[in-house]
Amino acid sequence: MGTLVTLDLPADSPVADLPWVITIGSLGDEEDWEPVVCGPYERAHALALAQAVVADEQLMAVVEPLLPRPDAEAIRDEIDLARAALDEPTAEDTETDDEYETRRVRPGRPPTEAEVREGWARIAAKLAG
After folding, report:
1. Which residue ranges have biased composition labelled Acidic residues (predicted)?
2. Residue 106: CA atoms inside 13 Å, Cβ hemisphere, count?
């Protein structure tokens, strides 16, 4: 069984409505290949697809939101925010790898191709709107 890594979001997080991507790579050092990035998907579709792919293989899937930014200045602003977050010590800075929460989940039904395409249409409408 592989590993799925994603953000633990509160139920009302606006980040959940963003488009999401899946990055799938080797779980160990035995295989040396470039990770595969797929998406965009709606969050639920991304999680279900990632779970289906890593369920029976030694792979790691990272499911994360895309941050659509309309210009270079907006991207620079995001970079500045990320850098500023590094300068602020948090309680998490004292955690070790053993302290991260892991949960075992049973893979659900992955979305059908039609459902994914409908999700793409909704994402396109959000990005265009």
Report:
1. 89-100
2. 2
C-beta of residue 67 within 8 angstroms of C-beta of residue 94: no
pLDDT tens digits, 70-80 = 889 999 999 99
24: closest CA among 8, 48, 2, 44?
Answer: 2
Q: Are 23 and 53 in contact (CB under 8 A)?
A: no
The pTM is what? 0.76
Tokens of 7: 């953000």
Distances (CA, A) of 118 to 23, 43, 66: 21, 13, 18
